[in-house]
Design a protein that fits this description.
Length: about 325
C-alpha cells in the first residue's frame, strides 16, 4: 500500500479509500451482512488500507455501526474515518435531513453514536442543500470542529460554482474550510475536469472520487454491463457511461487488460492512480477478491501513451456532477 497527504491538512491516508456503502442489509440486494462486511474490512486493514468512507444513509446507519464495531477491535488512531450527512434519515422527521444547524448537530451526534467514536476524522456534506444558506451550514460545521466532534470537514458532489462559493464564505467569515471534494469521476465520466478538479488543484483540496469504476461499467465488456440491472439503474440516474465514446473506452480498457494479463477494473483504477489531482479513489466492493485486485492495481504502471489511448475516445456528456 502507498500513502499520501490529504490535501492541505497534513493528514496521511492510504491511496485507496474503502467505501462502505455495501455494508449493511437494509440498502439493496448487493449489500453484505455483518460477518461478510467484517471480512472485507479486516482484509482491507491487512492490505494496509487506513481510510474508510461511510455515510449515515448507508443501510440507514447500519454501515456506520458495522465499521465502528470492526475498528473497535483495533487501535482507532491508526485509521482515518469519514462519514457524511444530508439525506433524510427518518420519514416522519423532516429535520433528520438537510444541512440546517439542527440537522447537522443531531445527525452528526447520531453518526458518532453508531460509530462508537467521540470524534470522526472527516465529516462531509453529502450534497448541496438548496433550502439552507451555506453560511448556516458552515457555522454549524465550524462549531462541530471546535467541539471536537470532527477534525476536518469536506464536501461531495455539487457544482463547482457552489463549492467556490462555500470556500469563499469560509474565508470571509473565518470558518473552517472544506478540505476535500468527493465527486463522480472515472474514465467514462470526466466532466469534473472542466471546473471542479482545476478548482480543487488551485485550492489544494483533496479529491476522493466516488464510483471510479463507473458502477461496474469499466469492469466488464459494455454489452454485459448494459444487460445488468445496475446498468439500467445508472442510465436512469443520468449517468449513461456507454454514450458518446463510452463504448470505445470500455473496449480499450478491455484491450489493455488483455495485453497486461490483468482485469479491466485494474486498468481503470491504474488510470485513476495516474491522475495527479486524484488523492485517493473510493473503492466500493462486496468481495475480498475484488479488494485484493484493486490493491494490486497500485503496481500497474501506465505509460503516457496508454493514458492518451484510454482517454482519446471520450466525448463530453451532459453534466450530472451535483446528483
Amino acid at each position: 500500500m502507498e500513502y499520501t497527504t490529504f490535501g492541505s491538512t497534513g493528514m496521511t491516508v492510504s491511496e485507496i479509500c474503502l467505501g462502505c456503502m455495501s455494508f449493511g442489509t437494509d440498502w439493496d440486494e448487493w449489500t453484505l451482512d455483518r460477518e461478510e462486511s467484517r471480512e472485507v474490512i479486516e482484509r482491507a486493514i491487512d492490505l494496509g488500507i487506513t481510510f474508510f468512507d461511510t455515510a449515515n444513509v448507508y443501510s440507514d446507519g447500519e454501515s456506520e455501526a458495522i465499521l465502528g464495531e470492526v475498528l473497535d477491535d483495533y487501535d482507532r488512531d491508526e485509521f482515518v474515518v469519514a462519514t457524511k450527512g444530508y439525506g433524510q434519515m427518518r420519514e416522519d422527521d423532516p429535520n433528520s435531513g438537510g444541512l440546517s444547524r439542527k440537522a447537522i448537530e443531531q445527525e452528526l451526534s447520531n453518526s458518532l453514536d453508531r460509530l462508537g467514536m467521540e470524534t470522526v476524522d472527516l465529516y462531509q456534506i453529502h450534497r448541496w442543500d438548496y433550502d439552507t444558506p451555506i453560511e448556516e451550514t458552515l457555522r454549524a460545521l465550524d462549531d462541530a470542529v471546535r467541539r471536537g466532534q470532527t477534525r476536518y470537514v469536506g464536501a461531495s458532489s455539487m457544482w463547482a460554482h457552489q463549492f467556490a462559493e462555500a470556500l469563499h464564505a469560509s474565508d470571509r467569515l473565518g470558518l473552517e474550510r472544506f478540505v476535500s471534494m468527493q465527486d463522480l469521476y472515472n474514465l467514462a465520466y470526466r466532466e469534473e475536469e472542466r471546473e471542479m478538479l482545476p478548482l480543487c488543484a488551485n485550492e489544494d483540496i483533496a479529491v476522493m472520487p466516488w464510483s471510479p469504476l463507473g458502477a461496474g461499467f469499466l469492469t466488464r465488456p459494455h454489452e454485459a454491463f448494459d444487460a445488468t440491472t445496475r446498468g439500467e439503474h445508472e442510465a436512469e440516474l443520468g449517468r449513461p457511461y456507454a454514450e458518446g465514446g463510452g463504448r470505445e473506452i470500455n473496449e480499450r480498457v478491455q484491450e489493455l487488460a488483455d495485453e497486461r494479463g490483468v482485469t479491466m477494473a485494474q486498468i481503470a483504477l491504474a488510470w485513476q492512480f495516474h491522475k495527479e489531482w486524484v488523492t485517493t479513489p473510493i473503492l466500493g466492493t462486496s468481495s475480498v477478491e475484488h479488494l485484493e485486485a484493486a490493491v494490486e492495481a497500485l503496481e500497474i504502471d501506465l505509460s503516457e501513451s496508454d493514458v492518451e489511448y484510454l482517454e482519446e475516445p471520450y466525448e463530453p456528456v451532459p453534466v450530472s456532477g451535483h446528483e
